[in-house]
């Protein structure tokens, strides 16, 4: 680990983080209400149809982000795409207030379109603001990830509260207002245009290899995370029933976010002042994930209250793993890509994760019947990722030493 002497984040980082936090608060707040709204007294939609509609929204986001990235990088610019996307997403939330199926479908379509414009372009603009200080990329994107998780936590809390207490229309109204507030920092910030001295100096082969490995690792990680999460969720339900701790259900369901927030903050501070390679962080993340899954094997199929601490420790290691992997993918893409097409590359990074998750979902019935089987499969997959990254990090170190000689 090397000391980082260039350790200054700017006010731009704060503006981008606030904007992203408010946008995620708007989106996740809307999302927590939407299925309940569709199946409620107003629309009276069948639960299966509501879940299918919800799945359509989640699946469409991948394609809308590719379209939004293409528009941002090739036609209208990243900043304009963020602002236009934010306005469209806010209008979509306001359309949901209309108590008809037309209002629902128009609103959801606009949310998908707006989010597709907003997400890859704000990530791209944020990354390009660090092209002259790439050793701060990991710290910066971890701070950005902290803002995302804080936003989702606040959105669920605030929008969920207004929706439950005052009606879904008020909840959607609050969601739309949050989205409009998220655009205020973007009006202040300028378009990020890389200069010639910020253009990528790495060889094409190194850039392609690193980006490919990052895509593969992140996709496999979230695949392993998803199938192993079935066991985590099953244990969570067991502990809610048997625990004598006075913990509200909402806290149990938000446990991952509660861990992520302080761990992210610690990582931001450490990575601001000290630097390690991004692939070393990915390697540590996969090892921590492997430890997390391994700890769960200490809990029997039918858990007892004494196993609660083991469960919490496993969640802790899983959260540390997530922080070493999730933000780093964008850091790697920013460092090794052509900045002119960064938003496009960021939008494509969602595809491996979705494809791998789709493949694993084909076996969900087996994993839900036997959650421990999913944990075993996820552990094997995480072990493979760890071994692969250890090999790659050692290979890079060997090449570096040979070049110095």
TrEMBL record:
Pfam families linked: PTR2
Membrane topology of the entry: Multi-pass membrane protein
Keyword tags: Cell membrane, Membrane, Transmembrane, Transmembrane helix, Transport
InterPro entries found in the cross-reference section: MFS_trans_sf (IPR036259), MFS_Transporters (IPR050171), POT_fam (IPR000109), PTR2_symporter_CS (IPR018456)
Key word Cell membrane present: yes
Compartment(s): Cell membrane; Membrane
Membrane-spanning intervals of the chain: 21-39, 51-75, 82-99, 105-124, 136-160, 166-188, 208-225, 251-275, 282-303, 309-329, 341-363, 375-395
Family: Belongs to the major facilitator superfamily. Proton-dependent oligopeptide transporter (POT/PTR) (TC 2.A.17) family.
Record's protein name: MFS transporter
Organism: Psychroserpens ponticola
Taxonomic classification: Bacteria, Pseudomonadati, Bacteroidota, Flavobacteriia, Flavobacteriales
